[in-house]
Design a protein that fits this description.
By secondary structure, the protein is mainly β. The strands form 8 sheets. The protein has a 17-stranded antiparallel beta sheet.
Length: 840
Amino acid sequence: MKFGLRLRGGLLATLIMFGAPVVAPVGAVFVSSSALAQTVQSISVQGNRRVEVETIRSYFKPGPGGRLDQGAIDDGLKALIETGLFQDVRINRGPGGQLVVSVVENPVIGRIAFEGNKKIKDEQLTIEVQSKARGTFSRAMVQSDTLRIAEIYRRSGRYDVRVTPEIIEQPNNRVDLIFTVEEGVKTGVKSIEFVGNNAFSSYRLRDVIKTRETNLLSFLGSGDVYDPDRVEADRDLIRRFYLKNGYADVQVVAALTEYDPEKKGFNVTFKIEEGAQYRVGAVDFRSSIPNFDPSSMRGYSRVHAGSLYNVESVEKSVEEMQIEASRRGYAFAVVRPGGDRNFEAHTVSVVFNIDEGPRTYIERINLRGNTRTRDYVIRREFDISEGDAYNRALVDRAERRLKNLDYFKSVKITTEPGSSSDRVILVVDMEEKSTGDFSISGGYSTTDGALAEVSVSERNLLGRGLFAKAAVTYGQYARGYSLSFVEPYLLDYRVALGLDLYQRQQLANNYISYGTKTLGFSPRLGFSLREDLSLQLRYSIYQQEITLPSYLANCNNNPASGAFNPSPAYAAANGIDLSSTNGLGCYNDGEASLPVRRELANGKTLTSALGYTLTYNTLDNNKNPTDGLLIDFRQDFAGVGGDVSYLKTTADGKYYAPLVSDIVGLVRLQGGILTKMNDDLRMLDHFQMGPNLVRGFAPNGIGPRDLNPFGSRDALGGTKYWGASLELQMPFWFLPKEVGLKGAVYADAGGLYDYKGPTSWTTTNEVNAPGCIPSSINPSTTGTCTGLVYDDSKVIRSSVGVGLIWQSPFGPLRFDYAVPLSKGKYDRTQEFRFGGGTTF
């Protein structure tokens, strides 16, 4: 398609006559000044079809005295061309002082179509182009749209794209606009190299950046697509990473990209000048504000003498100090950090200077780009509003909160001058993204077998910032559904209200002889006490019942019953020859443990509990942590109504630390106590442990166990447990980073003990009395089923093992092989364990 420029008439003469340093619009035609020297008496319009005559005349505005001079005519001509409504405009002199304006209108676009596009849908391209159906056709706009479509494809990694616009003329001055796209092949990043990095390996730095190398699984993501903006952002990520680790002089001097025609991809090289690593030499606080004690800010500093210099700690300290000063009434206080390097000792002395800043107020907060999200959802993330003192720390915090919402592709808060020198306007620019998710998840584990889940969720429901999710799970041994709803700002306070309704069914499997059905509802409140500390309050009410195959609960010691099935104890007491009856009595096919059958006889049980969780989290990455501490402390009190009462307390702490050569160390400590309150404890309320405490043991494989030699030997659980683990996680350096494989070696130790559930069961008659067991354990007294014999030794279980961790595109997968070193006499082991899932 060719685009031409036409200059007609006396343009040159006009420019020479008036000496005007202007460029004539495309299609504009001027007449000579001599031809228009006389006064214009009227304006005549010719050639217009859609644009009204008066609209065209309105662009020619007479000057003082009603005279339409040459300057006014030139201005009107330019304004007409700039409307984009005309492809040609001519101005001539008519009889009787008449000005004749002849126009040729641009065609109207009948339809816009795209051909050859497979990777990007028509709907997305239609949104991106400026040309619109039923709009005015403009050759300049079409050229711009052509470049825009090509840029969209380049952003998706297709640099060989070709876009050709085609115009098909239709009757009534209409055209159809067709964009033909030759997409080309995907152009990815073939290699990522780092030059000058001595402190951190290239393998470690690839974790820091967002760009990824192309591999066999790249089709599942877009990280390997070459994006110059992302590469530039990676430079800043590398710099921030070094600054967090004490390298105050670091510079990422260049990010070089080169297209390799042989590999048909880009090679990206980051050049780094690390400098020396610094520690904090001294921390001082100074103030120029009268009556302000700078030492009172020491408690808000996250920077301490002797610690590794961390620019993020400095920034968080500045933010907290400035906010605290504002709370004390110093609304315009500004905290400025300073650093004095000691190049020989490799230390930085940090000084926090607290000064009176300019008295500037926020005149207005303008929101731009939130087409779906309601304004109040964005404004509530600000701790300041119109009329408040301008506080940069609070503005930065609001920007960080908006980014963490995950509603937007990008968020940027800038300032513009207000109506006076002491006023500023905050401008929040956002680009929204899709917040709905539909996922089909599947997995397999040695505990639950095959499992599949279908879920639908929305993080920004109706643009009101609400979260909703519905999920259905169906598996070999586990089934159920769940409905969740979260209101993050309850009554406009920064308190999250969550509601969960769920139904779960656990089927009998190789590790338990019984199944359970649970239907529950749980409201909860979440509070963020600090960025690293959160509190959750919850109430749980759920109904639970046990299910058993009939052959595991078919004991019948009543001869009056038509289905007489005596136990060995009853037969011995009454001289019955079991060989002449129906087999071996109650236990010829096994029998579930007494606590299980007692729960079966009790039917449905209602539990009503209040609880809370206190979480401390300083992990550098929640999905793939390499540094930081995570501690969860939980307590639940059951007995607020319902059928059971207890106090359950658990604690779980994980500490990650980078060691050498990209090896990460993990120390984990955990423990729990179940305390009896008023009623007897159920077996189902006890802690059940296995590989979640010590790897190398089967699910429910640790702790007290029923020793009935003819029964199912169910695990009974315990009221106390403890566990400790040491683990080293290391990459496979010979594999590409993008594969996502890591190895692990570990040692576990722990214990579960102190069963306090039912051990006896007295009944009024023995029809289906599931507590009866053989005479060697249970006395044969009629009407009494007692004598549960179980193992509850306080043996320390321990194991060592190796693991394979794969952060795969199908979700996190882990394979473990562990060998028990010490165990209880009746524990059940399972050396190999696999678990994982996928979302696609």
